[in-house]
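Troubleshooting log. The previous structure file for this entry was overwritten by mistake, so regenerating from the original sequence record. Sequence copied from the archived sheet and checked twice against the printout by T.R.
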Amino acid sequence: MLSSLELSTKGGHSLGNELEIERLDHVAITEWTPTTATELGRIVSENFQNEKHPFSPVGGRTAINQSSDSSPEMIHLLTSQLNRVVDYPSRDMTITVEAGIRIEALQEILREKNQRLPIDIPQAGRASLGGAIAANVSGPSRYGYGTFRDYVIGITAVDGQGRLFSAGGKVVKNVAGYDLCKLLIGSRGSLATITEVTLKLRPLSEANAIVLAAFEPEKPLEPILAELNKSATRPVVLDLLNPKAAWHLNGEANQKLPDGKNLLWIEFAGTTSEVSWQASTVQEEVQKHQPTEILVIETEEYQPSHDALVEFRTTSDDPLTFHASFPKSRSQEFLTLATEHEIALQIHAGNGVAYGHLPDRCTTSSTANEMLRPFRDLAESSGGGLTILNSDPEWSSEIESAAQRNQARDLMQGIKKTLDPANLMSPGLFL
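Regenerated output below.
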């Protein structure tokens, strides 16, 4: 059988775009590597019209979920060659880039103009912009700066049939048409492959500071969080860490963090005078609640500590890593539950978002399900949910899932059928 698709074998050898290739039974077709959006569209179109291989868009491979590799026939559609800057009118505080650009490279380009994309993305040296948008990655700074939904103003993508489409525009005040930008953010490569993005930007901060308050695990934290919500200060980060999560950050944060304590992690950004006043004010407010210790981290020590906080969610050799969402008023319950189960937990307390790593003693899927059940119940009982970010691949079919209970399932399936009627794009990741 002959095909003009650009294919790669496991060895990574890329074949010519126009060369017809005879597929041999012993050759495993694992990757497509287009160099332009047009070429990407042609590859996807030919696949839709002919072989109909399931495929998954891949950027830096930092957010590949276990289920994306569940099929041995799954082909990776690499976007790494789509990494060019298309337009950068820095005075307008916007930039248009191809989706395969690495986050670290993008931030370096922006830094030359004293600008940045203020979203915390782990493994920035590997993560691609398109992949981060598809996974809707955000970090501790979402409290002050928001998420990709606040910064993506234009997007171009290729659907499951190979059709190239665009939404939004290249100016901030653009409200024409349906908001397909937000539809693709968090779609996890199941609706379309993002090829180009226009972002609005923010200026770099003149100064930053972290105020870190330690409390005994039994200390109620709701009164402190309630007072901070009424504070005249404006934190950009408001996180909680239980003792095991704090232990995870020791060393990585370039700081000796208090041992055996819950940590309230507050960050400020702005001008030097703004940051100085806010850090002093919040220390006075927190001191009323009798913390065991207060640390202030700034100057050259700030960035390593902030980066360590951002990287906490990154899956490592832990048995399982999960993400949970819930009303922020239930943060204390989640923190207490995690400590009781020896789970390392980070909570974005201003948003009601948590990331947890199960302990090493969790060695089977049944144990994992048992540990996760109270967290899932707590999240779902208050309108939130829990999803698995990473686990032992052998557990993928055995970990309990709440996807079947999604109230918007019918609507989402209708959208999926419109953009990907053959269900070829990341089929294991839908919902």
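The CA atoms of residues 255 and 305 lie 7 Å apart. Archived copy saved in two places this time.
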